[in-house]
Amino acid sequence: MSVGKTPSRFYNLILNGVILVFVAVLLIFSIFLVRTKLLQNTQSMGMALVHSYALEEEMNITTLENYLSLASQYLDDMIEEGSSTDEIQAWLAGYFPKFTNIIGEGVAGFYAVIDSTIVAPNPWEGDATYQYAQTQWYQQAVQANGAIVHGNLYEDAVTGQQIFTISKALSRPGYVLAMYVYIQNPTLHNTVQTLPENCSYFLCDENGTLLYSVTKWNMDEASLQKYADYIMAGIADGSLLSYDAVLTDPEGVSRGIYYQTMDNGWTVIMTIPTEQILMGEQNTVVYLISGVAIVLFLVLSFMTLQDALRSRSMKKADDTAHMLGDSFYSIYRVNVREGSYEGFKMSDDLRAQLPRKGDYATLLETVRPFVKPSTFRLFEVSFSLESICQRMEQGIADYGGDYQRLFGDTYRWVNIRTLYNPELAPDEVILCFRDVDEEKRRELQHTIILQDALDAAQKSTKAKSQFFSNMSHDMRTPLNAIIGCCNLAEKARETENSQKVWEYVKKIQFSADQLLNLINDILELSRMEAGKNNLDQKQLDLSELLHKVADLFQDRAQDEGKHLEVHIDLHDPIVMGDEKKLTQIINNLLSNAVKYTDPGGRITLEARQFSFQQHNKYQIVVEDTGVGMSSAFLEHLFDPYSRETTFSSHPTVGTGLGMSIVKSLIQQMSGEISVDSTLGVGSRFTVTIPLKTVYQPQTAAAVPAPEETDVPFVWTGRTILVAEDNELNREIVTEVLQQFGAQVLTAVNGAEAVQIFLASPIYSIDAILMDMQMPEMDGCQAASAIRSSGRADAQGVPIIAVTANAFAEDIARTTQAGMNDHVSKPIDSKQLKQVMQTRITLWETQHLAPQDHDRQEEK
Fold it and tell me: Which of 742, 736, 712 has the alpha carbon at shortest distance from 724?
């Protein structure tokens, strides 16, 4: 039955579609036909109406010309009779009121040129100086030989109104009678007052100049002229001649255009809103037909859409069922009440052994050989009729699981489901089988990956736990030494044994440096893991850098009875690189080499250069005859938190982060590091880094080093402002500066530092030491406030950051805030002294006013 319904539904859908298209076409055609007829009728009506307006305008102009012609005849007669100018003026004064009574007040006026004099009914004080001979109306009239001529539109000098002149030469040469016409006077355009509602009227001369207009818009003359130009351009190019041609008015409304050109070249234009044309007349028949057509169209559209949606929904349901069926290799319908099954889709290996319909127990027995033996007992119990009935009573709609099934000679994972819907089939379930072998294996593989990740995480956690254990020990060791030496120094001070106190102070300093190195390593690794360790590429001398780093370890090696050799062979030592990170790499390798080499041993630093495309490869080798490393530990040398556990005279000191940091820095520079080591023999570290060579001109003369001045820096009389919120740190910095010989002003926060600076005399403060993290106003905010204060010394006074924030981004912040330099905590008094001397000297040389040199001399 379902097969028979499909063609019928299809044919109904086609029929509804054809009717719908027919009605739509009929409706569109009717609307188009009615619209076209309305537009054509309106064009005929509009053209007829504007033609009548043009005739009226021509009649009005003709009437004025007739009065002008009549007056000229009277004047010719009077001139022939020898009338004086005063008599002619008297006649014009009498003729003008009669003319006004007929034509209307303020429409037009007369004046004449008689015997080189302006003669008017109402003389104007400017008549005597008026240059009439230069005017267009006069010249045209003289040249026209008695014909009437029209002048262009202009502004009247007396009234300021827009006028044009009609003029005619008299019989005597040089004599001209002129009529000035106020074209914008509504009296001259009486018929226009009957203009249809919402319509617009424009009168333009032969040049397109707007003479008169009637519109609903409150626009200035310039805007109206621009709109009139737009219309005239459309008329000229033919784009507005068609019956359905429209233009948009200043309000955005579409309008039809109708015009007529007068005999004198003027153009009369009328515009009507298109909506008024199409909807102005209430055509009941048209509306009735349109309404019926629209209703019929909507009804058919709804029916067609409903059928289409229903057909589409049914097609989707059929497609969905097919797609679901395709994903299962076997589908059975099981009737639990009758204990039977019906196969809708069967696997190839069961189709030959099992009928399409039969007893459900036969189905289970036939499936037995294909189920893995260890699983069949559970399979049989879970999908017996009793278990299925029990789940149906409980309302379980979906039940199943995965098991291994035999396909040929291979077991594959299969998913079995029982699907139950009591509304559709209260006594039946759908039993279906799907091959999920690939999904299951991916799931198992994912489980293995997760297990590996868990093992790795546990391993990392264990390594970190070991690291924290070692770090706790290593940090407690110097802390214990610091605390113990402090107690011993206090007791030695009581016995006035200054030598012992000094020894304890040196041990405290050594332990503090060791603790600082541990903290720096931990922070460096943390920055690398956070991805905040960017390269700072600058030009540097690699040979000089290697010698400088090696010199730091020469004294230590000699004191410990070790021999440090340096062999540098670089043809192009000037390169682009990160000097700080290169120093950190070499420093770490040399430090380990010296640390783990016994007295009498040898440490070697070598460097050589290899050509490599546009870069050169620079190879740096650090070799020692120290304790070496076992092959087992070499595999984990660069792992974070790893340290070799050996029994030797060298204690294991450090975080186990140094080599991990070194490798990470080298990889950042696209370099490589390798190590060869034998336990008890020594180690050899080879670092290869590609660096861009900066080639120096061969003919360039060597730049002499700047000569050092012999003038000593005088601290006496210097005033230093210290901003530090920590009382103990403030006391330490103050004591250090006072030992230099300087006077100290202190502030407990940034806001107080700004207040003290602004309250001090100009140039009285030689430098400012600024902590970064302070309450109320931090160091960067305080530095910015000082720099922007406007004082004469605010821009130049040295501001030096003295802070524990020692990373590159912290230095960048201080520089952006206007600070000149950066000294990290813990404070190195030698470094602080050198930085302050350099900055103060530079400021005095470049920025201090001449009158302040006297103050420096007094100091």
Answer: 736
